[in-house]
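ok so for the tutorial part 2 we go from a plain amino acid sequence to predicted structure tokens. step 1 is just haveing the sequence, like this:
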Amino acid sequence: MLENPRSPRVRAVAKLTKRSARTETGLFLLEGPQSVREALNYLPGAIVELFSTPSAWEKHSDVRALASEHGIDVEYVTEQVLAAMADTVTPQGIVAVARQTPTSVRDIFAAGPRLIAICEEVRDPGNLGTIIRAADAAGADAVVLTGRTVDPYNPKVVRSTTGSLFHLPFSVGGDLNDVVSRAHDAGLQVLAADVKGDDLLAARAEGVLERPTAWLFGNEARGLEDDMLDLADRALKLPIYGRAESLNLATAASVCLYESAFAQRVAG
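step 2 — the prediction. this is what the tokens look like for a chain of 268 residues:
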């Protein structure tokens, strides 16, 4: 059992809360039984190390069974060691170290997607995690991260996806011009979500949302610059019927992705 919160091994795991350490090692931190469970279910080969307090390991029999099924050994740690490793204030007893496994932009578009999300300079970890989760729930084929979008392996992003990080392909660090060009080459229209756009309901009535689509979402504060909007085939906005000034980015992205998912499934 690991008992020393200041040991080099514990400190190496704790450093993965920092982007510099994740970039240097190609590893990232998973916290809590939900994230670890999804990794074991969908990408067990990515797990490098698995740590748990004895009580948490006893409690989460499903995680225990999955680890055993894939031949992954757990190392017991004290509550103090787990707290030193984790990014959260109240960790849930299980953490893991995993390899980063992004997909190339080329492979994403080569797979013939019908619905993807492109995130350009999305900076809030909670927003990005929610967009990835919504894309997964809506049956999107991938998420593409461009520009200065927050690191998807940031612990807050990973937690916000609640496991969806392991359910669908995503790429990182792409150039927006290149990504839009590849989307067009793959037969997708690019729709920008922007307050200066046309009404989304009118576009729905025109049958626009039935087509294979790459939705483009911009920065929380500034949205999409004009040169970015020019890359899109069309900009659309969600109507506001109440008194709210605007919608949170992740909420708006969820609605847009689901609108396309509904339309594509109705159209067959």
